[in-house]
Design goal:
Elements: H1 5-30, H2 34-42, E1 46-48, E2 56-57, E3 60-61, H3 71-85, E4 90-95, H4 103-112, E5 116-122, H5 145-165, E6 169-173, E7 177-178, H6 186-202, E8 209-213, E9 223-224, H7 229-239, E10 243-248, H8 258-267, E11 271-276, H9 293-309, E12 319-322, H10 331-351, H11 354-362, H12 366-377, H13 382-391, H14 398-404, H15 407-415
Parallel strand pairs: 1-4, 4-5, 5-6, 6-8, 8-10, 10-11, 11-12
Antiparallel strand pairs: 2-3, 7-9
Helix pairs in contact: 1-13, 2-13, 3-10, 5-6, 8-9, 9-10, 11-12
Bound molecules: beta-L-rhamnopyranose and manganese (II) ion (2 copies).
């Protein structure tokens, strides 16, 4: 299913007057808006191939119909999102949930939709049908060398697939850990994991990055072998210049100061990228910005400050990806909302008066520092984000147009109601 650009244009014409009014007001409050709008146009967020179907919990799964049945249909879904917001110009694949066969055809299809391949993800947290060894007691950490070898080979195969598609990074997330005290020798688990990661790292092409994602708990509930940013940092530091830490916003213990983690990883030149989502309790994988928008803003505030301090390109130098799961929403609508939430937080962070903040910090003027941050956070930047879409041929109101065009009904008519996408 494709969205006709005439439909986008007439949708935009209908909303143009009210949009222009809002934009004029926003510009009068902010002053210079052009450089912000340009940065928003350039900023792209990768969509996870595993979040295009309805997610489930261990208690059940309530599919909404029309889910993509193949990698081709997943690419088409991301193409739909990108046509609507022009901010989702990449897809992140999870292997073997996605198994590309005809690489050239897949690349052509992605190119038709204006999509790139962001990080490829390996999966050693589930057993596959014809796999020789089980990951029940871990993969890269496993006490059994044959299991470790199998997991290493899988990661190398994922790199090969990524190379064939034009991806330039590998994300490793391990479920490895232990469920009960005494189950694991922590030091040996660390050493096995490091050795395994070294073998995977050695298979990376020179222009590739490797992202090591941490997670505090789940599915293991006593220890996780890459549990937090410090542990990830300790591995990636040893691995080398192509290895970085990946921050998934849902992978911290309650109340962790994620913005401080981000600032320090950036300072250490070891921040690789993000898995955006939001959460109330744990790895809830909810819509980005739906629960703690101030936290998301504070994270972007550190990102903008830290990237500018190092002269980095906001759009290209870090991996921006969503990692979400949608149990009660249409996945595509939810992803549109996530992208919007991320763009809003980024735009607000771009508004922060850095010079004034620095002066306030140097003078220990705590009140003024808070005012500066909260002024930016409380500014309604939605018209700037919409203007970025308008200028790049996307929709002023992506969710509104998605609904007006009854996209989900179209997908159900095309694919059927009882389709199940591979993924979470
Ligand atoms: C994990 C982690 C990984 C993702 C899997 C599906 O909790 O967030 O990034 O690949 O879920
Ligand atoms: Mn993740
Ligand atoms: Mn997760």
């Amino acid at each position: 299913m494709l969205i006709d650009s005439n439909k986008i244009n007439s949708h935009n014409e209908d909303l143009l007057q009210s949009h222009t009014n809002k934009l004029v007001f926003t510009a009068s409050e902010i002053g210079e808006t052009e450089s912000i709008i340009q940065k928003l146009i350039d900023f792209q967020i990768a969509i996870p191939s595993w979040a295009l179907g309805t997610g489930g919990t261990r208690f059940g799964r309530f599919a909404g119909g029309g889910e993509p049945r193949s990698l081709e249909e997943k690419i088409e879904d991301v193409g739909l999102l990108h046509a609507l917001n022009n901010a989702s110009g990449a897809i992140s694949l999870h292997i073997p949930w996605d198994i590309p066969t005809d690489y050239q055809a897949i690349k052509n299809l992605a190119a038709q939709h204006g999509l790139k391949f962001d990080a490829v993800n390996s999966n050693t947290f589930q057993d596959q049908a014809n796999q020789a060894h089980s990951y029940k007691f871990g993969s890269l950490q496993n006490v059994n060398k044959a299991v470790r070898k199998q997991a290493i080979e899988h990661n190398i195969e994922v790199i090969q697939q990524g190379i064939a598609l034009g991806s330039e990074s590998l994300t490793v997330w391990l479920a490895d850990g232990s469920c009960f005290p005494g189950q694991l020798n922590f030091r040996k688990a660390y050493q096995n994991t490091l050795e395994s990661l070294e073998e995977i790292y050695a298979a990376l092409p020179s222009n590739w990055k490797m992202f090591l994602e941490y997670k505090g708990y789940e599915p293991n509930f006593y220890s996780t072998t890459v549990a937090d940013w410090g542990q990830s940092y300790s591995y990636v530091k040893k691995l080398g210049d192509k290895a970085f830490t990946l921050v998934d916003l849902g992978h911290h213990l309650p109340n962790a100061n994620i913005e401080q983690i981000v600032a320090l990883l950036l300072m250490e030149e070891k921040l690789g990228g993000f898995h955006f989502n939001d959460s109330k309790y744990g790895d809830d994988d909810l819509t980005a910005g739906s629960m703690k928008p101030y936290q998301l803003f504070l994270i972007f505030n550190e990102l903008v400050e830290g990237m500018d301090a190092r002269g980095m390109n906001h759009a290209k130098d870090l991996g921006w990806m969503i990692d979400a799961s949608h149990n009660v929403k249409d996945p595509l609508e939810d992803l549109l909302q996530s992208v919007e939430g991320i763009m809003i937080a980024y735009a607000q962070a771009l508004l922060v008066d850095r010079k004034a903040l620095e002066i306030a910090q140097n003078e220990n003027d705590v009140v003024r520092a808070q005012e500066i941050l909260q002024n930016a956070f409380r500014t309604d930047v939605r018209a700037l984000v919409a203007e970025a879409r308008l200028r790049s041929g996307a929709a002023l109101n992506p969710v509104g147009l998605y609904r007006d065009l009854a996209v989900r009904n179209g997908l159900i008519a095309e694919r059927g109601f009882k389709t199940v996408a591979t993924g979470l």
